[in-house]
Design the sequence.
């Protein structure tokens, strides 16, 4: 598993097992084959495409978008909206979504203790 403890600049595409302890100053995309653990911060949006798997413990300052066939567990913070467009999104009791949670397709579960809409 690859680990990043530093600071990356620019948009990043992840397609492998990857733990982010540091930060990404840009948008991130998790593609098929990715198993991304966000323990640091993404200063931008996170898009999870078909076949992507993500667990967010840290913070995303932008939007989280879950595409068809992707799976995301949110235990951290999303600064804007969390949008499910056909995947599986689980927002656990420790999570906070500062914007809205929207589901156009797919399965979204929100723990009753999660904070949603805290803007």
Sequence:
């Amino acid at each position: 598993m690859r680990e990043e403890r530093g600071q990356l600049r620019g948009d990043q595409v992840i397609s492998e097992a990857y733990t982010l302890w540091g930060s990404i100053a840009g948008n991130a995309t998790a593609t098929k084959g990715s198993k991304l653990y966000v323990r640091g911060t993404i200063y931008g949006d996170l898009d999870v495409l078909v076949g992507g798997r993500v667990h967010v413990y840290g913070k995303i300052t932008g939007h989280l978008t879950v595409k068809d066939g992707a799976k995301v567990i949110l235990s951290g913070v999303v600064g804007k909206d969390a949008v499910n467009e056909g995947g599986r999104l689980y927002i656990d009791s420790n999570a906070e979504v500062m914007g809205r949670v929207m589901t156009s397709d797919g399965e979204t579960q929100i723990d009753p203790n999660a904070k949603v809409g805290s803007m």
Q: What stands out?
A: DSSP finds no helices and 18 strands in the chain. The CA atoms of residues 24 and 116 lie 24 Å apart. The longest strand covers residues 82-91. Residues 2-114 form one domain.
